[in-house]
Amino acid sequence: MNRLKTGLKPLLWSGAAFLLLLLLAVPVLNLPALLFMMVPYVVLYSTLSKGAFALHTIPVWVAAALIVGPAVLIIGLFFLLPGIAMGHLYRKKEPAAKVIRIVGVIVLAQLMLELLVFELFLDLSLLDEMSSMIRDVFDTVMAQNTLATEWTSSHTDTLIQVIINMIPLTFIILAYVLTVVSHYLARRIVNRSGLEVPAFPKARDWKLPRSLVIFYLIAYVMDLFMLSTSKAFLPVALMNLVPLLSYVFAIQAIGFFFYIAHHRDWNRAVPVLIAIPVLLIPPLSLIGVLDTAFPIRKAFVKSQ
Asked: Which of 7-21, 139-153, 158-172 tops mean pLDDT?
């Protein structure tokens, strides 16, 4: 394996990690910085020895803490752990699906752990703070008489409860978006260094297990009889599970269109453009359900 033990490239990636930490203090630019924060750590850990990785990472953290403040190290640590995990899996040449699954779970666990740490050790409930912020916004709008006259404080409370109940889904999507983006970029960079990292299967080959359709239908029917404002475990779980599975089948639908594009020799941009409404319009996920449940792809092969 051709490791980047010396040379300019490790220094450049250390510089990238340093720059991303600094951008956390810059409004507007801090959000894109968070999206790419994991990539330098993945590249460095994959291509350097553990000692060299530490030598390239620790000075970056010290310098960033001196310039921006020690709080930046908390965010750096948040992305360091999944970055190391992804780099370790790259070294072992694990399949892309396993990499995304494991690292996504790590990021998700860290998000949940942060809520717990803030509440137990800092006596700060992020959920309460979010509720107060939303309530203040609606109280201000109501005071200005810009909301519908039927809107009351009870409607605001209902909305807040629904938003809080959907936090698990939000965390899951956020965790896997960060993981997929990091994997997409880091794998290509690491491959150029000489370490072959398995690619994710082509979109046209994506296929969910058929049993997932039954699972989705059961969850969907059960969710119809649940109250969205309930705090009980089952309603909250279903409230998050149903849209999550809907997103999963939307991704399957995208794979279906890539399959058609491949066999019909469509322009590569066509399935990419189709993917946008599929992700934005939930009912279109039904295409993914049908593609999983029935062998509808055969019809497009036969018609060639």
From this structure: 7-21
Token pair 């990539």 in the structure block, residue = 39
Q: Would you say residue 296 has pLDDT above 50?
A: yes
- Distance, in Å, from the CA atom of 275 to the CA atom of 273, rounded to the nearest integer, reads 5
User: What CA–CA distance (Å, rounded) separates 299 from 207?
Assistant: 16
Span 84-98, pLDDT tens digits:
999 999 999 999 989
Residues 231-256 as b/e (b if ≥16 CB within 10 A, e otherwise) read: eeeebbbbbbbbbbbbbbbbbbbbbb
Question: Residue 92: CB partners within 8 Å, gap ≥ 6?
Answer: none
pTM across the whole model: 0.82
pLDDT in tens, 39-85: 999 999 999 999 999 999 999 999 999 998 888 888 888 999 999 99
- The mean pLDDT of 266-283, rounded to a whole number, is 91
Could you write out the DSSP letters of every residue in 194-243?
Answer: T---PPPPPGGG----THHHHHHHHHHHHHHTS-TT--SHHHHHHHHHHH
The residue with tokens 């403040």 is: 69
**Residue from 108, 100, 1 nearest 42 by CA:** 100
Cα gap 65→85, rounded to integer Å: 24
In 3D space, the residue among 28, 24, 35 whose CA is nearest the CA of residue 65 turns out to be 24
Question: Cα torsion at 72, 77, 83, 87 (round to 10°)?
Answer: 130
Report which of 253, 217, 252 is spatially closest to residue 238, judged by C-alpha positions: 217
How is 73-105 classified by DSSP, letter by letter? Answer: HHHHHHHHHHHHHHHHHHHTT--HHHHHHHHHH
CA-based nearest residue to 291, from 220, 180, 208:
208
pLDDT in tens, 154-202: 777 787 778 888 888 889 999 999 999 999 999 999 998 888 888 888 8
**What are the boundaries of each domain within the chain?**
8-192, 203-302
